[in-house]
Design brief:
Keywords: DNA-binding, Transcription, Transcription regulation. InterPro entries: LysR_HTH_N (IPR000847), LysR_subst-bd (IPR005119), WH-like_DNA-bd_sf (IPR036388), WH_DNA-bd_sf (IPR036390). Belongs to the LysR transcriptional regulatory family. This is LysR family transcriptional regulator. It comes from Piscinibacter gummiphilus. With 317 residues, this protein is an alpha/beta fold. It folds into 3 domains: 81 residues, Orthogonal Bundle (Arc Repressor Mutant, subunit A), CATH 1.10.10.10; 95 residues, 3-Layer(aba) Sandwich (D-Maltodextrin-Binding Protein, domain 2); 103 residues, Periplasmic binding protein-like II (D-Maltodextrin-Binding Protein, domain 2, 3-Layer(aba) Sandwich). The chain contains 11 helices and 12 strands. Strands 3, 4, 5, 6, 7, 8, 9, 10, 11 and 12 form a 10-stranded mixed β-sheet that branches. A two-stranded antiparallel sheet has the order 1-2. Strand 1 and strand 2 form a beta hairpin. It is globular, with a radius of gyration of 22 Å.
Length: 317
């Protein structure tokens, strides 16, 4: 019999990896307990035990909830791929290989394409038997494409889902939308922004805000205040370049803003009232329920990590 070299033993197991993923997602031990179907004390004990075996802290408590330490972030980076590989291995052992089933997917906003393809490639092992096909032609109106049977699944943030027995709508995650401006802009020296600061400024965006964007309208609502001015630039690169040139303030997803902020000639600011969180959902045709749920479970652990901005105080503080 051929000798097999056993790999070194580990201090963690799959339950520990699921624990850190749940804590990073929920940001509280109570929320993680709900995700894992455990009690809150059991989650707290499990975290202490994992940290004890590793000899490092994995999370710190902050006013915004649990934040991963450097060690926790490193563990998070590898946890989902390892669990997906283990799941794929179990699937291969339990069932013979079958022909891959196509699943046609589209994103409502092009910003998601900045991270989704690489994320799906990394998670391919967690979706055995699925042939994911990106249907770019349906980006403009994904709900209509779903209703027409042209696609199976859509990642959406703004388009409302009509009441229909044929469509299933399930919340997924949220990204943060930032105000990005030239480092020389008059507002760049302020740690946070008020709505009044934006009056008279040109807000640069790739699409006009719609009535369904409550996450944006609510914090910027001022019935008696002057309306905010938007300029639509279809290309994301144009939005960034206009902001860099001081010709307005870009309203951008953190997914887009992060690499541009590293140059130092642009800065990102939040509202003093708090971050603008844009919720994303996965919507699918009822006929694609089984495979769409598999994709939803994988994507729920794949959202790009929230951009960390320097801690600041609002002017009201």
């Amino acid at each position: 019999m051929k000798r097999i070299e056993l790999p070194p033993s580990t201090r963690l197991d799959s339950r520990d990896l699921r624990l850190v993923l749940a804590l990073a997602t929920a940001r509280t031990t109570a929320g993680a307990a709900e995700l894992l179907h455990l009690t809150q004390p059991a989650v707290s004990r499990a975290l202490l035990a994992a940290e004890g075996r590793l000899g490092v802290r994995l999370f710190e408590r902050t006013p915004r909830g649990l934040e991963p330490t450097a060690a926790g972030a490193a563990l998070l980076d590898g946890a989902a791929p390892l669990l997906n590989e283990l799941h794929a291995l179990e699937s291969r052992v339990r069932t013979p290989e079958a022909a891959a089933e196509p699943l046609r997917l589209v994103c409502e906003c092009y910003t998601a394409y900045h991270w989704m393809p690489s994320a799906l490639a990394a998670m391919k092992a967690g979706l055995p038997g699925l042939d994911l096909q990106i249907a770019l032609d349906s980006t403009r109106d994904p709900i209509a494409a779903l209703q027409a049977g042209e696609i199976d699944v859509a990642l959406v943030s703004e388009a409302p889902t009509p009441r229909s027995r044929r469509l299933v709508d399930k919340p997924l995650f949220a990204d943060e939308v930032l105000f990005v401006m030239s480092a020389r802009h008059r507002l760049a020296a302020q740690p946070t922004l008020q709505r009044a600061d934006l009056v008279g400024e040109t807000l640069l965006t790739s699409r006009l805000p719609t009535r369904d964007m409550g996450w944006l309208h609510k914090p910027l609502h001022a019935p008696r205040g002057p309306a905010l001015q938007y300029q639509v630039l279809p290309l994301t690169e144009a939005v960034v370049d206009f902001a860099r040139a001081g010709m307005g303030i870009a309203v951008l997803s953190e997914w887009i803003a992060e690499p541009h902020l590293q140059r130092g000639d642009l800065v990102a600011r939040r509202l003093a009232s708090g971050p603008l969180r844009r919720p994303w959902r996965l919507v699918w045709r009822q006929e694609a329920e089984a495979n769409a749920l598999r994709l939803w479970r994988v994507l729920s652990h794949a959202a790009p990590r929230t951009l960390k901005l320097p801690a600041t105080r609002s002017r009201a503080a």
